[in-house]
Design goal:
heterodimer; A: 244 residues; Rossmann fold; 6-stranded mixed beta sheet; 4-stranded antiparallel beta sheet; B: 264 residues; 12 helices
Chain lengths: 244, 264
């Protein structure tokens, strides 16, 4: 399998504060990678660098073979991104908003209706299409955020806490949705909820204080720490992040 | 270009779905109506005075409706733009940054110049709509006014004056857009824009006290001086070059600020 995302020696410093240090990993095409770590570990910063929103202090990031810094346009065409705060315009209707995002992502006028249909059904926002975003509940806003990332079917999806603010049944729906993306899309998913990762991802990358403390398949991690298959991800997580 | 137009359309749809645009529209029409009525009263007084004491005794600009009513009205509207413009331009970039939607624009396959152009076109659209409402005044005059020599208004002068007003509005929006790109705070963006436009406006009051060559420089730089020739129906290349350069400069500075995000 070819690598879709290649990160080499990535560091980000804000003056003397280190946000991310010497991060190196690759994600093969079609895989879902779970991004885990306590608050402030550098998950969101890493995602912002991958999408070309923030520049790295050092190191390189390649998406589908294109360097994020050298060819940002090519990279941006291939990424769907849900930031930690969904980027919504409260004064717009869901339909108007999705139509706007689709048009700047290059969806042609002729395919607009089908594309909106597809995405709104996949994320369960089809019944609120004509409501103003400012009147939506948090769960719906979050789903509109996911819908926006899916528009134009980008090969890479970077989702920063897509299940944040959802109730358990909505969370299960989004989880199903993300799971269904495997194979067609390469996904990086960050979350606080450890159970989420176990259910959706094959591999996890655990960050703590800007450093990578683990990057492996979930069951290998359990073995490496000298415990049986019974070990939950929670135990692994606590063990790894407590060390620092 | 397609992206820029999509962004411009989005800007306009947001302007028209918030109360801001309507408040500005109302303010613009209300205040200019007040001055329009004042100008008409002045004009009527002058006519009466002329009938009693003869036409030679009244100032030449009060002899026709165009120079007596519309030209002074454009002068007032240009000043209202100093107050209205900042409230329209303040949200262009500051709101996107505060809302975290800037992240969406910056991670979408859109080039920075397309973002700036789209934003600017949206801004020019809303200021043009605001100024367009004031066309109701010359239209009213031409409907109800009369003149012995055909049309009550000299449409060439009125049209050129209005074009000058649009140019000034577009310039104010360009300056406002740049200042809005520097901050997350809409209030700060509006305040800075207002200060810059106001300082620019009062510049012309410095000219009489200054020595040459400074007086010439100040007169050239003051927008009021540049506008007054256009308002009086004189098309001057130097005025177009002047406002055009301010617009282009603001555009380039905004583009730089947006690009800088990648290097922060």
């Amino acid at each position: 399998m070819t690598a879709m995302i290649e990160v080499t020696g990535l560091s980000k410093r804000y003056r003397d504060r280190i946000a991310v240090e010497e991060l190196t990993f690759t994600v093969p095409e079609g895989e879902i990678l779970g991004f885990l770590g306590p608050n402030g570990a550098g998950k969101s910063t890493t995602m912002k660098i991958l999408t070309g929103y923030l520049p790295a202090t050092s190191g390189t990031v390649k998406v589908a073979g294109f360097d994020v810094f050298e060819e940002p346009y090519e990279v941006k065409r291939r990424i769907g991104y849900l930031p930690e705060t969904p980027p919504l315009y409260p004064e717009m209707t869901v339909r108007g908003y999705l139509r706007f995002v689709a048009s700047i992502k290059g969806v042609r006028r002729g395919q607009m209706a089908t594309e909106l249909e597809r995405v709104s059904h996949a994320t369960g926002v089809a019944d609120v299409m004509d409501r103003l975003i400012q009147n939506l509940s948090k769960g719906y806003r979050q789903r509109v955020g996911v819908a926006q990332a899916l528009l134009a079917s980008p090969p890479v999806l970077i989702l920063d806490e897509p299940t944040e603010g959802l109730d358990p049944s909505q969370r299960a729906e989004v989880r199903q949705l993300v799971k269904g993306l495997a194979g067609k899309h390469t996904v990086i998913l960050s979350t606080h909820l450890l159970s989420e990762v176990t259910m959706t991802c094959e591999r996890v990358l655990i960050l703590n204080q800007g450093r990578m403390v683990a990057f492996d398949e979930i069951r290998n991690l359990a073995h490496a720490l000298g415990q049986g298959d019974q070990t939950s991800l929670e135990d692994i997580f606590l063990k790894l992040t407590a060390a620092a | 270009m397609r992206n820029a137009l999509a962004i411009a359309r989005k800007e306009l749809s947001i302007y028209f779905s918030t109360p801001w645009a309507y408040v500005i529209f109302t303010g613009m029409v209300g205040i200019s109506a007040f001055f329009f009525l004042g100008n008409i009263a002045n004009f009527k007084d002058a006519q009466m005075y002329a009938r009693i004491y003869g036409w030679a005794r009244i100032p030449p600009e009060l002899k026709n409706l165009t120079d007596g009513v519309i030209v002074p009205l454009w002068d007032v509207i240009a000043v209202i733009v100093i107050f209205a413009g900042p409230f329209l331009s303040m949200r262009l970039f500051a709101e996107e940054k505060r809302n975290r939607t800037f992240e969406l624009l910056m991670t979408a396959p859109v080039r920075p110049w397309e973002i700036v152009l789209g934003k600017y076109l949206g801004g020019v659209g809303i200021i043009s709509a605001t100024l367009g409402l004031t066309l109701v005044f010359p239209l009213t005059l031409s409907l109800f006014g009369a003149s012995e020599s055909g049309s009550a208004l000299e449409w060439r002068t009125v049209g050129l004056g209005f074009a000058g007003l649009l140019l000034w509005g577009a310039t104010a929006m360009a300056v406002g857009m740049f200042l809005s790109s520097l901050t997350e705070s809409q209030a700060l963006a509006a305040f800075l824009t207002f200060i810059v436009l106001l300082a620019w406006f009062v510049l012309r009051f410095l000219a009489p006290g200054a020595e040459e060559p400074w007086r010439g420089v100040i007169n050239y730089l003051s927008f009021g001086g540049q506008l007054s020739t256009l308002f009086r129906g004189v098309l001057e290349l130097k005025a177009l070059v002047f406002f055009g350069s301010v617009i282009v400069l603001s555009f380039l500075l905004t583009h730089r600020t947006v690009e800088l995000q990648r290097w922060a």
